[in-house]
């Protein structure tokens, strides 16, 4: 959720004037850390304190001038440019709002609920870059969009976190747009580090792989390549763990230095890889050392591997690449998000190398991931889909349990024990339910959607902890639920073995904590062909969902399915024949992988589930997918359709859409975002006010998921003879992603000679 890259943030933090920060922190703590004031704030209603809050924080601590004082740059009740709605406060630069402020009382625990309202105000203020939301106890700070934010607990804020708050909110920095500058520099730095690290990462893999082949001819190339990738995964985890103090710092560098000293100074040689294998063993079983202990993290990554434990690796290459990668700071430079991009790039390269090993020309194979129609999903897409599936299901459960935040904010003194017990029971019931929900990505790739779901669930457990702390007046202690989430809530399948291993690694990196064993994910993240359960068709990777996830299907199926199903994948003749028969309810003529995934999703979910996917927007209207659209409508309610247009995925022109559906529910909504500039899509996608009621969206002969605006035109078309009535069978050829070039504009029509018959009706 962090807005800033650590190394960039640290550079700006070093530039803070320590004396000014110290004085500001003293003013801040004298008010917001005063127990009596805290209690009074908690007992105040939103309207009672919001004006004073602006003075206490923005004026007294961060140096703003509030209206009506001359030359003010802080005001209240700023009206939208369009409409009559007003934001609670705004920071002004000249006459324009630079930041909008939306305030709630402390009885609003989840500030995420304020996002839609706050960004509605921002989008009505041209030139506004920042959104600030607060319930007087917590404060969130956003730049441009709602995808990432910084959250501060004002009542418990440390000096270190206050310095970051100062960079975000102080008039000295915000009015100069410094936070936006830090974010922009962070994005540039992340891009640069990603490119550089991936170059070194790929060089390590490729050179080690070449050397291993030469020194271990008894093994086939494909096996050695997979072991090379596993070795790299092990090193990456160690680099990450040692820089984040899960392991003794500079562990790899120390091993290399000790090996060099023994070889050069004491003439004691043994292969460098033997030293690393010993360390891998420590990671698996644990080790009590003279200077440092090593915890048994394991999780399967460091378990004994007969081939990997017996191959030979060139000393010089191993020395060169481990030292090179150890120069990166995996705490401040290399974030988990950067590693996510590294993993995605890696999967493309892996497929190229595997194609080469198997004798398939690279130009023909493209890469298996592109051949299989797989593309990296941007974070704002994964967040939107998770929020509207997992998030909606959680909201419905809290409503069912009658969990009302305001009830947990009331003063405990004088309340009956039975009331407190009842409120506690609601939270216990919610947590129990939360630990049992099942979320699946049937084409999980490197785990982007699973990681987003993990992030959401961790935040939801923290929300429960916060309500419990409010109820009993105790300090908030966050539950260590990450391993429980990995064991019970998250499931994934992918046809690519390396994708499965990398998805596991990405989840481990996000949840690893010092002294806590890694969760084995072998029963949750599996390799297989999600679409084919016939061993005669998919000989090695046929996948029987009911057999592989027996506990899930004993309860009726998954609660949530999310993902970016592959599209445009290639199939052999046996697979095409299989799809025609096994998917006969939705199959028409052209085999399309995402189409089959939609059918599969409907068959692996339970009767109260939700699902959300991003797929090509051709699904919304093409005749080829008419049977699938009807099948979905017969079995689920389509809640939301977002027509996104082109260029959502980098280097992919295919127009896409998001579909959110559920087994329970009646409301349908639609929004067309095709013409929105691509840089604004991460903002506009969360703008709920743009959704239009579309209950009658699908009331047409072909079940097209289109807006009402076009339905009359479609009806006109259906009054004309069908092409199939006057021509031979027509099938889809090569589909163009650049759909905008397929439209004829009025100005071109006027300058063209067109047969009047073509323009009839």
Automatic annotation (TrEMBL):
Keywords: Methyltransferase, S-adenosyl-L-methionine, Transferase. The keyword DNA-binding does not apply. One of its GO terms (biological process) is methylation. Residues 488-649 form the Type II methyltransferase M.TaqI-like domain. It comes from the Bacteria. InterPro entries: DNA_methylase_N6_adenine_CS, MethylTrfase_TaqI-like_dom, MmeI_N, N4_N6_ade-DNA_methylase, SAM-dependent_MTases_sf. It catalyses: a 2'-deoxyadenosine in DNA + S-adenosyl-L-methionine = an N(6)-methyl-2'-deoxyadenosine in DNA + S-adenosyl-L-homocysteine + H(+). Its EC number is 2.1.1.72. The keyword Methyltransferase applies. Residues 37-166 form the MmeI-like N-terminal domain. GO terms for molecular function: nucleic acid binding; site-specific DNA-methyltransferase (adenine-specific) activity. PROSITE patterns: N6_MTASE. PANTHER family: DNA METHYLTRANSFERASE A, DNA METHYLTRANSFERASE YEEA-RELATED. This is site-specific DNA-methyltransferase (adenine-specific).
